[in-house]
Amino acid sequence: MSRTLSFITAGLMVFAVGPVVAADVVDDRLAAYQAEGAGPFDAARGEAMWTRNFTHPKADKPRSCASCHTDNLKSSGKHARTGKAIDPMAPSVNAERLTEVKKIEKWFVRNCKWTMGRECTAQEKGDFLSYLRLQ
Amino acid sequence: MEAVRIWELPVRLFHWMFAASCSVAWLSGDDPRYTDLHLYAGYLAVGLVMFRLGWGLIGGRYARFGQFVLGPGAVLGHLRHLFDPSRRQDHGHNPAGALAILVMLGLVLLLGLTGLIVLGGEEGFGPLAGVFSIAQGIGVHGWHDWLAWVLLAVVMLHLAGVALESLLQRQNLPRAMITGLKMAPEGVTESRNFSAIGWMLLLVVASYSAAWFFPYLKASEAEPYLPFVGAELKQNAQWQESCSECHLDYHPSLLPARSWQRLLDEQGDHFGEDLLLSPNTVAALKEYAVANSAEQVRREVSFRTLHSVPADESPLRITDTAYWKQAHHDIDKAQWVRPSVNGKFNCAACHQDAGQGGFMNGAMRLPE
Which of A102, B111, B188, B205 has its CA 20 to 30 A from that of B125? Predict the structure, then answer.
């Protein structure tokens, strides 16, 4: 095999393997939530929840996921307090999204607490992931 | 009376470049943003003094110290006959003017020396970097400021003297420093013009200026020219990652070690948010923060911040320290709410080296 060809093959493999790994991480999460008694999951419910406004007991303004991530998951968001740019949530424009279990769970805890004042249930997390993975 | 060349070209060029460099140094001295310009003007002024000292030995007839530095007796005699210029013999500098000149040259040398100590001590830059401590630099900074005020006073006396002499002699002395020509009785020896040396002096100053400012021409918005970034402070990947998820990864050198310990101990309620850091992460971050806290890092900003925090306090916000407040007291309120700034925690909006933790004088810009 020529050198160029092997590079192309390697490149294609990266493309081929990337999304598969990402899907696996999300599938694993959904399976884990199911094991906790949640499911079936619904992307539409996740989307509705994403833009819903919550009244946090300690906040004066209503909060939603969109407060920081904006309504358009393919564009950059902005930290509500510090203004720091947040990379897009959609895996189609940001391949790093939904690839790491630790990060998924960490930010679910932190951001559900910030938005609603409580952690998300397994059902809610499953709905969110089902919605986000399609973006 | 006839027009006679008294001031040769090098003396005239020296005079105006010296006046300009001292003015620029004076005007750029207060605002740390203009430190680079201040240093340019300061080095230039000192270099011009060096030239003038040499020229005073080998220069034109009226430029030589032997001709116009005549001792205290001459100054007193001059002042006694101040209002009777016909009795005076000087066609170049008069004895009182000569005294002002010597004092101004000496003051600028002292300003240069103290300035280099401040630069080496506070900023860790220049030929005296590493020789003086930050505390010594801050101490000498007071003398440097004081000397500048004295110089300003002597310049005012010099200007008053020039104005008075212009009236008494009925001739425009500032113009004489441009043309070199003064009205003098017949028979007064004129000075050679030394044009070649004048042009060489101009060429040297022009080359120096071009070399100093050239990097600004190459700089862009993305790669600004930061003359005072300094050696990079110790960074830590875990620290950068953990902090920069939500905000600037403030370098640990910006607060005392006890502040970082408290901040990490209270990470469950970090300004209202639970950071959810694992015990291992907390331990690793603490180790890095304590080893690189304000106590450990040799930077003016660290030194001043540390010394502005009472020993029994551990502020969690850098903006709560007295030094931060003092350093930013004259920033207009409207600046903080601009979209490009967005708040006091966004150091990087103005401090272009905030990421490196430097907070050096020259790396400061108000955003567009």
Answer: B205
